[in-house]
Amino acid sequence: MDTSKSFTIGVLTSGGDAPGMNPCIRAVVRTAMTHGAKVLGVVDGFEGLLNGEFRPLGARDVGGILQRGGTILQTSRSPRFMEPHGQREAIRHMNEVGMDGLVVIGGEGSLRGAYALHQQGIKVIGIPGSIDNDVWGTSISIGTDTAMNTIMDAVDKLRDTASSHHRAFLIETMGRNCGYLAAMTGIVCGAEIVLIPEVQVSFEEVAKTIEEAYKRGKTHAIIINAEGSGHRTTDLAKRLDDMDVGFKTRVTILGHIQRGGSPTAYDRLLASRMGLKAVDALLAGKSGVMTGLVERGIEYVPLEEVISHKREANFEYYEMTKVLAR
Ligand code: F6P
Is the CB of 192 under 6 A from ligand 1? Predict the structure, then answer.
């Protein structure tokens, strides 16, 4: 489209960093350049937008970042941007530099911010980037696959010690209010039990499951506790030890290690596809949509729908963890 010659696209990363944000920025820049459009990187997410912190990004500026975790643009959670005053400042700065459209890469809160700008007439495309995989409208977000692989590597190592010492390891995963990371890694790491925010499980049930695993002759037990499950990991461990369920317990809270590291091939591909589709959308005059992975294709899903739906847990996978723990 010819008008793309003078088109200037802003790109920002917002909320918790997620592995794959860099390949996504790279795809945005290089797709834009292919169409003769310019790109301005916004530093520090929405904070940078309302402070007017922009930096031109060319093809060489995004060289060598495909394999890097984190985000070269840096990120923030910006309560100021959620206020009308903050959004007004942001729009003022965008107008000053002649920004014609914006790509927002981030999780649920960031996509809400993107929608707020769209409602005020700014052309915005959202891209789901969050290890939590809690965004509705896409089967997976950028960063989730890498985080799952990081958790799997950690649990595989912990299992070596767990089985050598006949221990139960309680491993806490991130995910805020979403049990996706815990349930999926429960399957791929062979957990005895998985605790997620979407399903309430009593302490007694946890204790019974672990004691029965001991009686069945298991050499170790893996308990994956999602951070929002309602059980504090250290309390669970203490109570299990006090009660004596066969195994002695140890606790590992994986924490922010889950957010770092080089993106997997899957995340690099997903990020590249979504970055390209986001620029295509802006140049075609679209706004107020998110790039979502729907079946095997990248579709444009209205941001209004994305932010008004809560992603449901996949109970089939949750049930699977129980069957496979025999
Ligand atoms: O949304 C990503 C996430 O890592 C959540 O899983 C976690 O609850 C939260 O961010 C942690 O936030 P912070 O980086 O501010 O500690």
Answer: no
